[in-house]
Design brief:
Keywords: Signal. The protein is 14% helix and 45% strand. By secondary structure, the chain is mainly beta.
Amino acid sequence: MTTGYRRCALSLMLCASLLFGAGVATADEGPRLKTFPQDMGFGEQPLPDDARFNPLNQSVGRVDARAQTNALAGRTILWPTAALVPRGQWAYRTVALVEHRLYYSPTDATELRISSTWPGLDQYYVGAGARFRVLDSPRASLTWGPSLRHRRSGYDPGTHDLSLGLEVVADLPLNDHSVVSLGGALNVVAALGYLELDESACQTRYDYGRGDCLVAGQSRTWEVPAGGHWGALFAGLSVYPVDWMVFNIEAFTGAGTGSFMELDDFFIRNPLYQDELAAFRQGELRAGLDVLGPMNLGMGTTFLKGGFAAQTSLILTRFMGQTRLVPFLMLAYQGGA
């Protein structure tokens, strides 16, 4: 009886497994409910080229690329722009082969420079400076920089001065082909060194210019002068119509105390000796930069070829009661990594 019962139970279990197993198999073979649309291969389509972002292949406007392509990008004509020499590169610039400047940028936001005239010139100076970029955006770039200069006067024998300078420049791109530069500069004569003169030995200006009036065996006297300081405001426009040429326009004005590099005294004074140091010892404010005039306009063209750049320009100014066109020539080369 027990054995028959067990056989019957096993038979029921086998029958149930066969029955339900067959049912599941039947259900799997039946139609399925599609809850998602069938993939037609859209996810495998390649991305169009114009939808890809590849910054290495993006075109750069001439204004944005001017520091890489223009060795004179750091200046409009006489005054600076906010463009710095690219990091790791250097540049050499000269004004009429008389003034020489060497630039180097250790970082993207720092530019260092040293400058001088030929040591053999009567009006000789040597200086150093730096510029730092504090703002760099598609709409504006802002730089500032201090400078230090030691000058030996060519018009006052035995006279030297030490000046501290500061400049601030902002570049405002108008489009990919033109940029406006606005800025200001300040120069303060921190120290003036001179030799005493024997007026009795100085009958004419030629005697004075040769240094025949200096008292022999004396040491130079240094003082903080009241004059010789000056400041200037400038605005420039650089237009890049093609890759190999730039049009430059510049306007500037300024004021000073005393005389600026004594050129004014050199032209207006009598041939007989007069004390040239009075310009530094007196601090009267004079409108306009004595070298050029109260308002000046410059126009130039810069030509580019590889790392070389050459600029020819004319400065329209009213000086000593006359309107004059003063020519300028600048040459430059930029190289490095």
